[in-house]
Write a structure and sequence with these properties.
Blueprint: H1 14-39, H2 49-69, E1 72-78, E2 81-88, E3 91-92, E4 97-103, E5 112-120, E6 123-127, E7 134-141, E8 148-155, E9 161-165
Antiparallel strand pairs: 1-2, 1-9, 2-3, 2-6, 4-5, 4-7, 5-6, 7-8
C-alpha cells in the first residue's frame, strides 16, 4: 500500500456502516415504539381496582342464582337473526326481554350488546347488526340483573345450536 493512495470519505467506508447499523436501527425502533405507546389507548387496564374487587361478590351471587335456577339456553344463529330458547328448572323462562353481551377478548371497541325480545313460552329473538367472527366471551342476563350466565363462544356458528348453561360458581 502506498502512502499517496486516496482514502474514501467516512460515509463510503463499509466498516462504519457495519458498526453504525445496529445502533441506528435501535434508535429508529425506539422512536417508533414511543409513538405507538403515546397514541394507542390501553383498554385492558382499570384504575379502580378496589371497586372491581368489591363487585366480584355481587357477580358470584348472580352466577349462583342462575345455577340454582338451572338456567339453560339454546342459541341458534340464522344469518344475522338469533333465536334463543331459555328454560329453567321450573320450565320455560318467561321474561319481557333478555340481554346478551358479547365481549371481544382484547378489543373493547368490538364489544356488542344484543337485546332478545320475548316471543312467549321461553322463546326469544334478536338480531345482529354486523356479522361477527372469532372468539367471544358472553354474558346473558335478565332485565332486573338478578342472574347471569357467562361463558365463551366461537363464532360464526351458522346453522348449529350453542348451549348457554349456568355453571357452578367457583368459591374463593
Amino acid at each position: 500500500m502506498s502512502v499517496n493512495a486516496p482514502v474514501a470519505p467516512w460515509y463510503r467506508q463499509p466498516w462504519f456502516w457495519f458498526i453504525a447499523f445496529f445502533p441506528l436501527i435501535t434508535i429508529v425502533w425506539g422512536v417508533v415504539m414511543i409513538i405507538i405507546a403515546a397514541n394507542v389507548e390501553d383498554t385492558m387496564v382499570t384504575d379502580d381496582y378496589s371497586k372491581k374487587g368489591l363487585a366480584i361478590n355481587m357477580e358470584l351471587k348472580k352466577d349462583e342464582k342462575a345455577y340454582t335456577m338451572g338456567m339453560v339456553g339454546a342459541l341458534t344463529f340464522e344469518g344475522r337473526d338469533l333465536v334463543l330458547r331459555l328454560k329453567s328448572d321450573q320450565g320455560p323462562a318467561d321474561y319481557q326481554y333478555l340481554i346478551l353481551s358479547l365481549y371481544h377478548p382484547t378489543l373493547a371497541g368490538r364489544d356488542r350488546t344484543i337485546q332478545f325480545n320475548s316471543n312467549g313460552n321461553g322463546l326469544y329473538s334478536g338480531k345482529l347488526l354486523k356479522d361477527i367472527k372469532g372468539r367471544w366471551y358472553y354474558m346473558l342476563r335478565d332485565p332486573a340483573d338478578d342472574w347471569q350466565i357467562k361463558g365463551e363462544l366461537q363464532l360464526p356458528s351458522e346453522g348449529s345450536t350453542l348451549t348457554l348453561q349456568a355453571d357452578k360458581p367457583i368459591q374463593g
